[in-house]
């Protein structure tokens, strides 16, 4: 990864040690949320230490069926667990936090959404809101090169496992996308419009393909997409996956921004520091022409799983940002996930905002790439459920997702309501 950063500097990009500093533009190693070399999720850092609190009950292996109402006030949820239905009532407020895919599904099944569409499913509308509209996501397009340098594909050894378990260091502490940076494709932008991630392993086909050789990859992520998709019901069954239509790159602005971003990747790849490690091409455009780059984008786009915007409040077609967490009822309910954000964040991934910026309870360490020591901590969101593409990437791509079934998603925390 040092070679990637050196190549970026040779291409004219500055080095930075802190992406959370006054100027985010530049390249460097990413700041991570780790403890003892392992990923420290929101559940690990905040929920697990609170499990013994008398005012907290976490229910697992349950599926949220719908919201319950007293008139127009959200009063709790109905859940299915072990083939039995039960109601969980909130004394004060119910907080829905099922993510930008499943929160709109639950809202629509509860009668909150676009009234005309709900009626076609036989659902009586309670509140006419543009639920499911305005879907945005971070699309990523990568380059991949074969290398003779050893990578993470051979990192799982007894020695490295002992380093991880006993000392919290070594190559198995890698977060895969170890290095990268933030860039602007043109002057006059208020902030970076694309980001790159670099990984010392053959990570292709959304990580679904088995790495069979040593390779390095780095890709460009569109930070501020203008294309809009939609989440809508597939069935009245809460266990059915909702339809997810992302509509990646349906605007000319998004296509041109990504073309320029991929061209920057190609410039970095040609620099001497990185060229010395390249054995051959694995996934690259046929040339640096717009047509060939667009063809590469069309065939090799993948999601970074940062969907937002599907529960932004407002009349149909007019989402706004007022009252940012009280979204979907006259009272008694709040939304607590990235579905409430009307737009992707200008400067970074929305997983920071979905979690909220909190004081970090972990010690911070800096280390070089050689020993894969922990780097300064940065709060990130918990992993979203796995997604699998059902159609080719491009305009009109559709993803199907299984409803999340984890306590930090839409399971009820009864006494914390």
Task: Describe the fold and architecture.
The protein is globular. The chain has one domain: 2-Layer Sandwich (Glucose Oxidase, domain 3), CATH 3.30.560. It has 417 residues and is of the alpha+beta class. Helices cover 19% and strands 22% of the residues.
* Percentage of residues in strands: 15-25%
Terminus-to-terminus distance: 45 Å
What is the CATH topology classification name?
Answer: Glucose Oxidase, domain 3
Annotated CATH architecture: 2-Layer Sandwich
Q: What is the quaternary state of this protein?
A: single chain
CATH homologous superfamily assignment? Glucose Oxidase, domain 3
Major sheet: 7 strands, antiparallel
| Secondary structure tally, helices | 9
**How big is the Rg?**
22 Å
Q: Quick one: how many beta strands? A: 22
Uncertain spans: 315-330, 350-354, 356-417
- The averaged pLDDT comes out at 81
Broad CATH class? Alpha Beta
What helical percentage do the residues reach? Answer: 10-25%
What structural class should be given to the helix and strand makeup? Answer: alpha+beta
Jot down its keywords.
417 residues, alpha+beta, Glucose Oxidase, domain 3, 7-stranded antiparallel β-sheet, 4-stranded antiparallel β-sheet, 9 helices, globular
